[in-house]
Structure formats: C-alpha cells, structure tokens
Specification:
Elements lengths: L3 E6 L6 H14 L6 E6 L5 H8 L5 E4 L16 H6 L4 E4 L25 H13 L3 E6 L3 H5 L3 H13 L11 E4 L13 H18 L2 H6 L1 E5 L4 H8 L6 E4 L6 H10 L1
Parallel strand pairs: 1-2, 1-8, 2-3, 3-4, 4-5, 5-6, 6-7, 7-8
The structure holds 2-phosphoglycolic acid (PGA).
2-phosphoglycolic acid binds next to strand 8.
Amino acid sequence: MRTKLVAANWKMNLTVTEGATLVETSLKTLHSRPDVDTVICAPYLAIPRLREILRNSYVKLGAQDVFWLESGAYTGKVSPLMLADFGVSYCIVGHSETRGRFGKPELPESTLSIFGETDETVNLKIKGLLYHAINPILCVGETLAEREAGRTDAVIAEQVRGAFAGIESAELYFAAIAYEPVWAIGTGQTCDSAEANRVCSMIRSLIRDLYDDELASELRILYGGSVKASNSRELFHQSDIDGGLVGGASLDAAEFTAIVQSA
Ligand code: PGA
C-alpha cells in the first residue's frame, strides 16, 4: 500500500516572513496523518527558518531545484550536500519551468534557454540527490502541442528513461514522479482525472518494464497542474495517482490543508 504524498511547490513566491507565517498557520490545521506524507518545497532562503518551524512536526522540508555537484566554481548554484546539511528531505527535479518549457511564456522567448534543463541534467541532479539520501520528485509532462500531436506517452517515456538512466531499482524506492501536463500548470485547466490516471498508469507500466514489479508497485506517482481543494479528492482517489504536487493552491493555508485532508 503506497502512502500518499502531497507536496507544496511555492515557486518564487513569499518572503521568508510570509512563508513562516503560512506554515505556522497551516500547522494549526494540518493534523498528523500517518497515511499522508506532506512536504513543503520552499525557496532556498526560506529553508533555514522553515527547518526550525517544522522541527517537531511531521511535515517534511523540500527544495525546488539543485545543482548536481557538491562544491566548486558554480556561481549561484546550491548543491545536494548543502540541502542535506539543512535537513531537506525532498527536492523537485525537472519541473517544466526549469526545463524551460513554459506552456505559455510570459518571459521573452529569447530568455527561456536560461533555464536550460535537459533529461541529462535531470539525471545528474537525481544521482546527486540520491547520494545524499534526498528524495527526488521528478516532474514529467507534455506541452499542449505535444498532446495535440498524439505524442504525450512518447514524450513522457523519454523523460522518465532519461531521468533514471544508470540508476538502480533499489535507489528509487523513495523517489516520486509527478505527472504535470505543461498546459495544466498555473492555468486553472486541470487534466481530466481519468486521463491523468491513464498517464500515471502508463508511467507505472514503464517502471515495471524498466525495473521490476516491486518498484512499480511502490513508487509514488503524483499529479500536478491546477490541483485545488475542489478537484483533489477525485484526482487522488484514482487507482494510479498517489497524491499531488501543488503550486498556486499551496500558498493558501486553508486550501492546502483541505487538499492534504482529501488525500
Ligand atoms: P499549479 O502548479 O498548481 O499552480 O498549477 C503546479 C506545479 O507547477 O507544480
């Protein structure tokens, strides 16, 4: 039986003080649930403060991105060692916003490559995180153009294969995969729950083919993309959806609490 996982992805929102207030408010209503792992993936600067606040709670601390090497001349980067040093136990990898594949870019097209995430860098980051016992949350998903061209399953299979290349089954038990259709992120347009479940089940079959039955039945596969309290129950109760990665709705304590309770 897989334990559900609900992870908040704050993205580039909230000052440290605002984030601390949000978590303190949420902890009053987020009661301990042994059947749900709850994670907050915060901006780096909020991590030290949140670590103190979450110290005696069951809510886990997460980061939103990482560089893959431990140290060196990599200006502006944060390593898995630095995350481990602050008690970070989860980290998002390969989010469509770091892959530079925004569904509808608000930034000039010419700047998108600055994010420049590829399947190869995603793979290196996962290896770096696993070395420090930090659980990766691998994001995969198709753009609207890829969906319309009937390429959804092929795009996702390629992302999963690339991300896990050279990684053994035994290393992946605490990893999670989040299926996040790019066209559903931050748009208010949620993927239909039956279709989200079909894609998550396709990912599980792929894990079975690449590895074994045991990993396929243990690995948690989440849905992300405009999850809110009004649709989370239906999504999270699909057979192959083990929780969610929640962006916008995680910035509101009551909404996020309701989403966690629905799992
Ligand atoms: P959203 O973001 O819930 O705001 O759509 C989800 C995500 O990008 O992880």
